[in-house]
Write a structure and sequence with these properties.
Elements: H1 17-25, H2 40-54, H3 58-67, E1 76-77, E2 91-92, E3 95-96, E4 110-111, H4 114-125, E5 129-130, E6 133-134, H5 138-144, H6 173-176, E7 183-188, E8 192-199, E9 204-211, H7 217-234, H8 257-263, E10 265-269, E11 272-278, E12 284-290, E13 293-296, E14 301-303, E15 309-311, E16 318-324, E17 327-336, E18 341-351, H9 359-364, E19 368-371, E20 386-390, E21 399-402, E22 408-410, E23 418-419, E24 436-441, E25 444-449, E26 452-456, E27 466-469, E28 477-481, E29 485-498, E30 504-517, E31 521-527, E32 532-537
Antiparallel strand pairs: 1-4, 2-3, 5-6, 7-8, 8-9, 10-11, 10-18, 11-12, 12-13, 14-15, 15-16, 16-17, 17-18, 19-20, 19-26, 20-21, 21-22, 23-24, 24-25, 25-26, 27-32, 28-31, 29-30, 29-31, 29-32
């Protein structure tokens, strides 16, 4: 039930003093009627401000003024290739993955160790100093720990995110449940995950980092919360580690027609879509959009005496709606963290059908587009990086853009060439949205979404013996593989192959080695602009 933990940033080293003081007094702070939303781009902009004000690159400034004074000698930014043995590799059943390097700095590019992040935590707990060296003023540390959400949507209870400056929450919900203040920052890239928790008044900090594809910062934050609670009990700050909440639902009552009408509908957020529909057995069914269809929670949700629809499966999950800024939002209330408190997550914004798609957009629903701009070193190539367009069942007029990174809905009524972001969801699931642009290209219509350009699969030629030239734009070149074949690829570049089921089937340098390619698959070739790769089919 933890739908809001997939983030693209990792614990962040801190702000420069002058930037903090400017933010603290500027008109950029929350004003009545404003909405607070998780924003990676805002951290990126803060990094640019640091560069403009200091004349140093962001990595150089952080290194000189934060990392080195704190003795964080192993912490760095990946501005040069990482040497083997200096990072934790990700291990899979088939081997070791190439190291993932994010193309961000201030929004999540710091590489560090738990021990060194512990020194950063000690600086926060000591009012901005460590070992007699001042990094931040005490007032800056205090300001960072203040809630920046005085005007955000109220969801009647604790929430996972109570944003500070740089912190995901300055009222960590599991600690707040026992009357203790806690600050937490979590983050994820595709391969790396972290939780950074500070209990400022109790001299406790927990730092957990992980490398892998089956863990995320939400799990690490829960583990950090359990450790912090145990430490608080050991120090006598709390009497004991709290027990798990009972999952028993309140007394069942009949829902009114107005309550049913308020909650039934389709709710959209960044990378998620949910549907609440009447259940034939009474109550409502809660469904998530996966793989082109609505997948329902196995048991219905029924109205209870607290005004929420509770799952009859005994999971402790409950649904309600909240109004804000003239919109309706679906709110999940469920046991969270170490299981001793309930948490509210705004899942999505209610959206109703609008005018049908234009013929141009309708025609594109049958298409598939292939990424041509992602660098060959990218972790996205572990699967087939493609883009497709869907219309959500039961919701006409909008497009669901499914891409390799962050699927999301767009409104295609701006024009036949641009479909725009339109959601206004507070806290976390209204973030990292993008417009979808249709671009004319030699293959017909290309798509641009989330910074990537995609080439239409329908215009990809079949693989044959030929010289393949990388154009001036540097776009990767795709070829379909109509039959199983063996080829040699030679030239200044590299290649990747995918099977008919879209799995990565092979990759390598264009060094003239013999390569077996699967029938029904795809081959993609990479090189610098103007590079010529010679492809020769040998069988």
């Amino acid at each position: 039930a933890d739908y809001a933990n997939a983030f693209t940033s990792v614990p962040f080293a801190g702000y420069e003093q002058q930037v903090l003081d400017t933010l603290a007094t500027s008109r950029l702070k929350s004003t009545p009627g404003s909405m607070s939303v998780y924003c990676n781009d805002c951290f990126t902009l803060a990094g640019i401000v640091v560069e403009r004000m200091t004349g140093l690159s962001y990595p150089d400034y952080v290194t000189q003024h934060i990392l080195q004074p704190l003795g964080m000698t192993l912490s760095r930014y990946a501005t040069t290739p990482l040497e083997q043995g200096t990072f934790a590799p990700v291990l899979t059943d088939t081997g070791t993955l190439p190291v993932e390097v994010t193309n961000v700095l201030a929004s999540g590019g710091l590489l560090s160790t738990p021990q060194e992040m512990g020194r950063l935590a000690a600086m926060f707990m000591n009012g901005g100093t460590l070992d007699g060296v001042r990094i931040l003023s005490a007032s800056s540390v205090k300001e960072m720990g203040q809630s920046q959400l005085p005007t955000t949507l109220v969801t009647s209870g604790p929430a996972q995110f109570v944003y500070g400056l740089g912190w995901d929450s300055v009222a960590e919900a599991g600690l707040a449940a026992v009357g203790v203040e806690g600050w937490v920052k979590g983050g994820d890239t595709g391969q790396y995950h972290a939780a950074f928790t500070v209990v400022p008044d109790s001299d406790i900090a927990v730092v957990i980092q992980a490398a892998g594809m089956t863990v995320d910062s939400g799990k690490l934050e829960t583990l950090a919360q359990r450790i912090a609670l145990a430490a608080l009990a050991e120090k006598g700050v709390i009497a004991e580690v709290p027990e798990l909440l009972a999952l028993t639902a309140p007394r069942a009552v009949a829902a009114t027609p107005a309550q049913n009408a308020a909650i039934v509908g389709t709710y959209l957020g960044q990378a998620i879509a949910f549907q609440v529909a009447p259940s034939p057995e009474g109550g409502v069914l809660f469904s998530a959009y996966r793989g082109g269809e609505w997948i329902s929670h196995p048991e219905p949700f029924t109205m209870r005496s607290d005004g929420r629809y509770w799952s009859t499966a005994g999971t402790g999950m409950a649904l309600t709606v909240s109004r804000g800024w003239g919109r309706t939002y679906l709110v999940l209330n469920a046991p969270a963290g170490a299981g001793h408190y309930r948490d509210n997550t705004v899942l999505g914004q209610k959206v109703t059908s609008i005018n049908p798609l234009s013929p141009a957009w309708q025609k594109r629903l049958a298409g598939t587009w292939l990424d041509v701009t992602e660098r060959p070193e990218s972790a996205l190539w572990q699967g087939l990086p493609q883009l497709t367009l869907d219309e959500l069942p039961g919701l006409s007029g909008y497009l669901w853009v499914a891409d390799a990174l962050a699927p999301s809905p767009v409104d295609p009524h701006t024009s036949d060439a641009v479909a725009t972001m339109f959601l206004t969801v507070p806290i976390a699931l209204g973030r990292d949205l993008s417009d979808l642009e249709v671009l004319p290209c030699a293959g017909g219509e290309c798509m641009r979404f989330g910074g990537a350009t995609y080439w239409p699969l329908s215009s990809v030629p079949a693989l044959s013996s030929s010289d393949v030239t990388i154009g001036a734009d540097g776009y990767a070149q795709w070829r379909t593989i109509p039959n199983a074949m063996t080829v040699t690829i030679t030239g200044p570049g590299s290649w990747k192959a995918y099977s008919a089921d879209e799995a990565l089937a092979g990759a390598g340098a264009a060094d003239g080695s013999t390569v077996a390619l699967p029938a029904g698959g795809l081959l993609v070739l990479f090189g610098a602009p103007g590079a010529v790769l010679k492809v020769r089919v040998t069988t």
